[in-house]
Amino acid sequence: MIRHLLRIVWNRRRTNLLISIEIFLSFLVLATILILGLFLADNYRQPLGYSYRDIWSIRMSMNAPDAELTGAATLPFEYTPAGQRAKVATLLGLLRDLPGVESAAAAMNAPYGRSSWSSSFSIAGRNFDYGANEATDSFQETMQLTVTKGRWFDRRDAGMPGEVVVINERLARELFGSQDPVGRTVTPDPPRLQEFPRRPPMRIVGVIQDFRKGGEFEPAGNFVFFRNNVDETYTGPRMPRWLLVRARPGSGAAFEERMIARLQQGAPEWSFRAEPLTRARDTVLRSSAPPITAWTLIAVFLLVMVMLGLTGVLWQAVTQRTREIGVRRAKGATGAAIQRQVLGEVLILTTFAVLAGVAVVAQFPLIELLGPIGARVYVAGIALAVVCIYGLTAACAWAPSRLASSIVPAEALRYE
Amino acid sequence: MMLRNHLTLAWRVLWRRPFFTATSLFGISFTLVVLMVAVALLDHIFAPMAPEVRQDRTLGIFRARFVGEHSLWNSAAGYRMLDRYARNLPGVERLGIVSVPAEVHSYTSGRRIESFLRRADADYWRILDFDFLEGGPFTDQDVAGGSAVAVISAATRERFFGNASAMGRTITADGQSFRVIGVVSNVPATRPVASGDIFVPLTTAKTDAYRQELLGDFFGLLLARSSSEFPAIKAELESRLKSVEMPDREYDRFEAPAETYFESVAGQQFGTKEDVRGHPERLWAAMALVGCLFLLLPTVNLVNLNVSRIMERASEIGVRKSFGASSWTLVGQFVVENVCLTLVGGMIGFALSGAVLYAISAAEIIPYAQLRLNLRVFLYGFGLSVLFGLISGVYPAWRMSRLHPVAALRGAAR
């Protein structure tokens, strides 16, 4: 049966090749959009690891000359990182005294903020990429991070040799599998090039569920928190760029205005931009909507166009083959058998297209065409695309196949 | 005469199979809508448009970077770089300096207003031709003396003062107060050098730290006497930057090319550490490639429909061939038919694009952007439909012309 169908398909190879190409291209469109869609949906389901309600994030600009550009030696103290950290500590004190503030913290970057910091280290030859942040001891309380093992930074970490870190569950799993990571020290491999400094060992004091800084649509990744309590125990070169403030529920614009006035008093030459995290989150989610909508609309229109086109082409093919079908009917084939033949031919064409399509889409992860998407999402997306494309082509062939099955042999043989 | 016959025939054929015609038209018009919206958006970002009326003879300094063997430090230009190295370039009439927009917050009667603030010098207002609804720009004296004055956009005026006049009133932004001396029409957020809500003299910055920076957050605008001076200006700036002192042993050269905005975008996409220029032709090629990839599916779809439609007319072709019509005549006839079809689709697509652009503007997806179909976009669209019609018509026509008359008469086309 299949061999016979293959021969029929082969006999009309030129027309069929074009149809197969069309199905192949549609499969690429469908697979791409489904993989990306599943990826977004999968990301959205994952826990954020923090709370965004009743929190203000405040971006600070120091309006200071860049230390690296001007040569740090010539800078007055308030422009040096140490001076700026001291100022941040003062500001945190001012905030904690402000009525309505429940908790305040400082960090290198904030959720839903545009700045981010990513890095990597290699341990025993294995490379780990991670997103990073540097935060004060109060950060966990302010952001209500879920600590799943060990603890967050506190005063006990002051003055410890090396770096103290809190990592997320995913990185803990990648580093230690099912073993308990708390209390262990990881030592990054020495750099391959001599001129880069050697990274200090990192002692893990706790594990948090996650910290997906970019919000709901951010892909899962590794995350590392370093301690920077803006005091003299910190020896690194960096200063925090964001303040995070947990306020009493129901605090509004008047609170924000008071808070900014207080900060501006504490550091008149700095700039502050405050925003409730709920609003920053809205902005991020809303800004991802137009591209998603546009690509989905384009894909849907392309598929509708292909479906209409395919239906037309198949319909035309059936009318053109009226006499051939008439002969089969006259020799005793049932209407159902004819319908099966038409559908079968289309499904064979679809199979060729899908084989080629899967072969092409399977290359996407190798060149990271669609970004860092996990194998699970890829396979699910391709499987769903295969099911959908068979469904779509079968739907397109349905009406033409009905037409074919209703051909009356006596009339068909006379058909011109 | 021949063409008229072709056209009449085309019209008849199109009506014979309304489903095919409708499907083809749907595909063509939708494809054109997508392309025309893309073209209109690009046009909106790159084409000259008020207030950038002298764009044809303006170069910008949009990026600056330190390059070393192992390091790369990318940013916008700093004030010191522009002030020290980009002034008095030969062939340049004026240098305008303006900061990249910074988001600032203001508090007024219990509300927060978010604006984009730019700090600029006085020449900025002479290079760009803003449409002043009230008052005028700040002057060289204002900039020299650091006067706390501001030019605001119409949208900002509405946010702060409703529809009342803003002249002489005070706005507070980022903890600083400014007296409003001018109101300009809104500029779409996509325009890199002219968009903004509040413009203030650059000397009103909270500290004068910016004066020492080679990398920072400023754009330079170079108004040349004419575009023929561009190569000389670029070369002179490049040679002046060779004398920049490196802040660090890590770096061995400083680059801040004078370029058009299109060149700068090409540079950000395709520039390498070795070559700061982006080779704009690569950006053109990339855009054309994306367009062609997108066109692939609609074209195959249309070719398929056309092949079907032609094979249906096998007997007609057989008759014409047996009466001596040459293959070329038949190919010509079919291509004309198809171009007619795509032109009709093009017109529908054009109307639809107008509607879609209107909807995008109305939804304010890009703040203050008034996307419209202009003559240039119309010509692009027209060219695209003709091209589309030719491409999708040639293969089916070629197959048709190769039909053997006898086979065609039997209707046994494969």
Structural features, described:
The complex is a heterodimer of chains A (about 425) and B (about 425). With about 425 residues, chain A is of the alpha+beta class. Chain A has 13 helices and eleven strands. In chain B, the strands form three sheets. In chain B, strands 5, 6, 7, 8, 9, 10 and 11 form a seven-stranded mixed beta sheet that branches. In chain B, strands 12-3-2-14 form a four-stranded antiparallel beta sheet, with helices on one face. Chain B is elongated and about 90 Å long. Chain B starts with a helix and ends with a helix. Classes of the chains: A alpha+beta (about 425), B alpha+beta (about 425).
Helices, strands, pairings?
The complex is a heterodimer of chains A (416) and B (414).
Chain A: H1 2-11, H2 13-45, E1 55-61, H3 67-70, H4 81-97, E2 101-107, E3 118-123, E4 126-135, H5 139-143, E5 147-150, E6 163-168, H6 169-176, E7 185-186, E8 202-208, E9 223-227, E10 242-247, H7 253-266, E11 271-276, H8 277-320, H9 322-330, H10 335-361, H11 364-367, H12 375-405, H13 409-414
Parallel strand pairs in A: 4-9, 6-8
Antiparallel strand pairs in A: 1-10, 1-11, 2-10, 3-4, 5-8, 6-9, 7-8
Helix pairs in contact in A: 1-10, 2-8, 2-10, 2-12, 4-7, 8-12, 10-12
Chain B: H1 2-16, H2 18-46, E1 58-61, E2 64-67, E3 72-77, H3 79-85, E4 92-99, E5 102-108, E6 111-120, H4 123-127, E7 132-135, H5 140-145, E8 149-153, H6 154-161, E9 170-173, E10 176-184, E11 198-201, E12 215-216, E13 218-224, H7 230-240, E14 253-255, H8 261-270, H9 280-312, H10 314-322, H11 327-362, H12 375-401, H13 405-410
Parallel strand pairs in B: 6-11, 8-10
Antiparallel strand pairs in B: 1-13, 2-3, 2-14, 3-12, 4-13, 5-6, 7-10, 8-11, 9-10
Helix pairs in contact in B: 1-11, 2-9, 2-11, 2-12, 8-9, 9-12, 11-12
